[in-house]
UniProtKB/TrEMBL annotation, chain A:
A cellular component annotation (GO) from this entry: ATP-binding cassette (ABC) transporter complex
Name listed for the protein in its UniProt record: ATP-binding cassette domain-containing protein
Main localization (coarse): membrane
GO molecular function, a single term: ATPase-coupled transmembrane transporter activity
Sorted UniProt keywords: ATP-binding, Cell membrane, Membrane, Nucleotide-binding, Translocase, Transport
InterPro entries, per the entry: AAA+_ATPase, ABC_transporter-like_ATP-bd, ECF_ABC_transporter_ATP-bd, P-loop_NTPase
Localization of this protein: Cell membrane
Organism: Candidatus Iainarchaeum sp
TrEMBL record, chain B:
Organism, scientific name: Candidatus Iainarchaeum sp
UniProt GO cellular component terms: plasma membrane
InterPro entries, per the entry: ABC/ECF_trnsptr_transmembrane
Transmembrane segments: 20-50, 57-77, 97-116
Name of the protein: Energy-coupling factor transporter transmembrane protein EcfT
Keyword annotations from UniProtKB, A to Z: Membrane, Transmembrane, Transmembrane helix
Pfam families, alphabetized: CbiQ
Location of this chain's protein in the cell: Membrane
Protein origin, superkingdom: Archaea
Lipid bilayer topology: Multi-pass membrane protein
Primary location: membrane
Length: 387, 198
C-alpha cells in the first residue's frame, strides 16, 4: 500500500509538488503522469526515500510506503554497478525472467534495454514490495521498450508505480495526473525538399568490434531519419559525420555540420539561454519564456530543447534523439522546428511520430543502412503500439 | 585512455598479483632516490604498456607531459627558494611517470570488480573501496563523454586563439556531465544499500 496525504516538496523554498494526496492499493499498477518540470522525478525520489534522506528538500504531509521500495531510474548505465550480469545479479534468476541469454554477458556487450531489464530483474529478485519506474523506457528502442513493458505487466503481485510524461506506454493503466496533459496539435506542414544535393556520403566506420557501412546523399532542406535498435550504429553514424570517429571513405558537404548529442549537458556552456541560442531559434522552438534563465539550472527536457536552439542556421544538423526527455507539448514544438526549418537534417530517433516530418527513412541494421518505406518503419515500431 | 580490456596477456593473472606489482612499483618509486633506478622503473612500466598493446599510448604520454609541465611550473614558483630544484624536479617527474604508466597498465588489465573484491578482502573500509571502484568503473564512460564534448566544441568553432575560453568550453560541460552522473550513481547506491543489495 502506498499512501500520500497533503504532500508537498520544495527545493530551497521553491515548491515542486503541492498538497498532493493519493492512495495506491497492494498489487495495483498505476501511472503518474505529468509534463516536464511537474515534479515526477522528485515525487519518485520522495517515495523511494531518497528525498529527504540523501537529497535535501522541504517536505510536508504524510507518507506511507512499503519498507522495501525499488526505484528504476531513466539511465540504465548509472544503475549497473558491476561489469557483468552474473556479478550484478549475484545468483541466477528464475526462468520466468528469461535471463539465460544475458547471464554470461559483460556490461559492454549489453544494450541499454538489456541493462534496464537486468536492473528490473535485480530488484524483482530482491523481493522489493513496490517498484517505482521513473520514465524507464526513455532511452530504449521500441522492441526493447515492449519487452520491458511486458515484463512489468506480468508482475501482477507487485505494486508498480510508473512515472512518465504521457500515456504512450501506460494506456490501460489507472492514471494519476500531476499536471494537465497536453493536447497540442501541430499546424506547420513539412516543407518540400529542393532536390539540390548538399551532402554525399560513402564511408565505413569501425569502433572496437563494431563496423558500419553507410552510403547516402542529402538534399537541401531534406530531413532524413535513421531508425534501428539500440546499439545498431545510429549514433555512431552521426558521430562519424560530426568528426568524432574516424571514417574510411568520404563524405563532403557544401555546408558545415552541427551535432546535437542525446545528452544536452554536453553542449551547454553559456550563462543564459539567449546566449546559447542561434538568432530566431527560441521563437521557432517556442521557448522564449526562459530566455534569461541559466541553461544548466533547467530540467532535462528544457535543456534538451535549448540544445536544439543552439544549432546554427547554415549547417547540416545532426540530431541524436531530439525528442528524448520531452513532454508531448515540447515534442510538438520540436516537430514544428524540424518540419519548418530551411536546412537539411539527419536525425537518429526512436520516436515513431517524428518520422512523418522526415522526407526519407533509413533502417540501420546488420552493419549497414537501408532506405525503407513508411510501412516497413511502422513494422519496426509496431511492438510499442498498444491499445 | 582507460580501457578495461581483459584480453591482454597480463589479464588472466589474479588481481592480488597485479595489485601487489602495482603497489610494489609505486612504493619503490617513492622510496628510491637514484635517477637510474627510477628510469628503470619507468622503462619497466613502458615495457608493460607495449606488451599489453596499450591503445592510447600517445594520449597517455601527452597527458603526462601536460601534467608534468603544470607540476614543474608550480614547484618552480613556490619551492625553488628552499629546495634543490633541479634534482627535486627530476625525481618528481620520474616518479610521476612511473605512477602514470603503472596506473595505466593496472587499470587496463584488471577488472574493477576484482579490485573491489580485493579491497574488501584486505578489510579496506567501504567508504574507501566503493568510491575507488565506482571511479574505475565509470571512467571509460566519462572519457567517452569528453570525446563528444571535444568534437562538439570543435564543430562550434572553438580554437586555441583564446585558450582560457577553450578550456572553460570543455571543462564546464564535462563538470556538469560528471556531476550529473555522480548524482545518479549516489541515488542508485543509496537505493541499493537501503534495499540490502550491497
Amino acid at each position: 500500500m502506498i499512501r500520500l496525504e497533503n504532500t508537498s516538496i520544495a527545493f530551497s523554498g521553491k515548491p515542486v509538488i503541492s498538497d498532493l494526496s493519493f492512495s495506491i492499493g497492494e498489487s495495483e499498477h498505476v501511472a503518474v503522469l505529468g509534463k516536464n518540470g511537474s515534479g515526477k522525478s522528485s515525487l519518485a525520489l520522495y517515495l523511494a526515500g531518497v528525498i529527504p534522506d540523501l537529497i535535501e528538500a522541504q517536505v510536508g504531509g504524510k507518507k506511507q510506503v512499503p519498507e522495501k521500495t525499488a526505484l528504476i531510474l531513466q539511465n540504465p548505465s548509472s544503475q549497473f554497478f558491476a561489469l557483468s550480469v552474473e556479478q550484478e545479479l549475484g545468483k541466477k534468476p528464475a526462468s520466468r525472467f528469461e535471463m539465460n541469454s544475458l547471464w554470461d554477458k559483460s556490461v559492454f556487450e549489453l544494450s541499454e534495454g538489456e541493462k534496464q531489464k537486468v536492473n528490473l530483474v535485480a530488484n524483482l529478485m530482491n523481493e522489493s514490495f513496490a517498484i517505482l519506474l521513473d520514465e524507464p523506457l526513455e532511452l530504449l528502442d521500441p522492441q526493447e521498450a515492449n519487452r520491458f513493458q511486458t515484463l512489468v505487466e506480468k508482475e501482477k503481485e507487485k505494486t508498480v508505480v510508473w512515472f512518465d510524461k504521457d500515456e504512450r506506454f501506460v494506456k490501460n493503466w489507472k492514471k494519476i495526473p500531476l499536471s494537465p496533459l497536453s493536447t497540442a496539435s501541430l499546424s506547420k506542414p513539412r516543407l518540400p525538399s529542393t532536390g539540390k544535393t548538399v551532402l554525399h556520403a560513402d564511408f565505413s566506420v569501425s569502433r572496437e568490434s563494431f563496423h558500419l557501412n553507410a552510403s547516402f546523399s542529402l538534399s537541401e532542406n531534406e530531413k532524413i531519419a535513421f531508425i534501428g535498435k539500440n546499439g545498431s550504429g545510429k549514433t555512431t553514424l552521426l558521430k562519424a559525420l560530426a568528426g568524432i570517429f574516424p571514417v574510411f571513405g568520404t563524405f563532403s558537404s557544401s555546408l558545415g555540420y552541427a551535432f546535437v548529442p542525446q545528452n544536452p549537458g554536453q553542449i551547454l556552456f553559456e550563462s543564459t539561454v539567449e546566449d546559447v541560442a542561434a538568432p530566431g531559434r527560441l521563437a521557432e522552438l517556442g521557448i522564449t519564456a526562459f530566455s534569461k534563465r541559466h541553461p544548466l539550472l533547467l530540467s532535462k527536457g528544457e535543456q534538451k530543447i535549448v540544445s536544439l536552439a543552439a544549432t546554427p542556421h547554415n549547417s547540416v544538423l545532426l540530431l541524436d534523439e531530439p525528442t528524448t526527455w520531452l513532454d508531448a507539448e515540447r515534442r510538438k514544438n520540436v516537430y514544428g522546428f524540424i518540419s519548418g526549418a530551411f536546412q537539411p537534417m539527419i536525425i537518429a530517433t526512436h520516436d515513431e511520430e517524428l518520422l512523418q516530418y522526415c522526407h526519407r527513412i533509413f533502417l540501420v541494421e546488420n552493419g549497414g543502412i537501408k532506405e525503407c518505406s513508411a510501412s516497413t518503419a511502422r513494422r519496426f515500431f509496431h511492438p510499442i503500439r498498444r491499445n | 585512455m582507460f580501457r578495461f580490456n581483459r584480453k591482454t596477456v597480463l589479464s588472466p593473472y589474479p588481481a592480488e598479483l597485479k595489485f601487489a606489482l602495482f603497489a610494489g612499483v609505486n612504493i619503490l618509486a617513492f622510496v628510491l632516490h637514484a635517477p637510474w633506478a627510477l628510469i628503470l622503473l619507468a622503462a619497466f612500466g613502458f615495457g608493460c604498456l607495449l606488451i599489453i598493446r596499450y591503445e592510447s599510448l600517445l594520449q597517455l604520454v601527452l597527458g603526462l607531459g601536460m601534467f608534468l609541465f603544470f607540476v614543474d611550473v608550480w614547484f618552480f614558483i613556490f619551492f625553488s627558494d628552499f629546495l634543490p630544484i633541479d634534482r627535486f624536479l627530476l625525481e618528481t617527474n620520474l616518479r610521476m611517470t612511473v605512477v602514470f604508466f603503472s596506473a595505466a597498465v593496472f587499470s587496463t588489465v584488471t577488472d574493477p570488480f576484482d579490485i573491489l573484491k580485493l579491497l574488501r578482502r584486505l578489510k579496506i573500509p567501504e567508504a574507501v573501496s566503493l568510491p575507488v571502484y565506482i571511479v574505475l568503473r565509470f571512467l571509460p564512460e566519462i572519457e567517452r563523454q569528453f570525446e563528444d564534448i571535444k568534437a562538439i566544441q570543435r564543430l562550434k568553432g572553438a580554437t586555441w586563439k583564446n585558450p582560457g575560453l577553450l578550456i572553460a568550453r570543455h571543462l564546464i560541460p564535462l563538470t556538469f556531465v560528471v556531476l550529473e552522473r555522480a548524482n545518479e550513481l549516489s541515488i542508485a547506491y543509496y537505493l541499493r544499500r537501503k534495499n540490502g543489495r550491497i
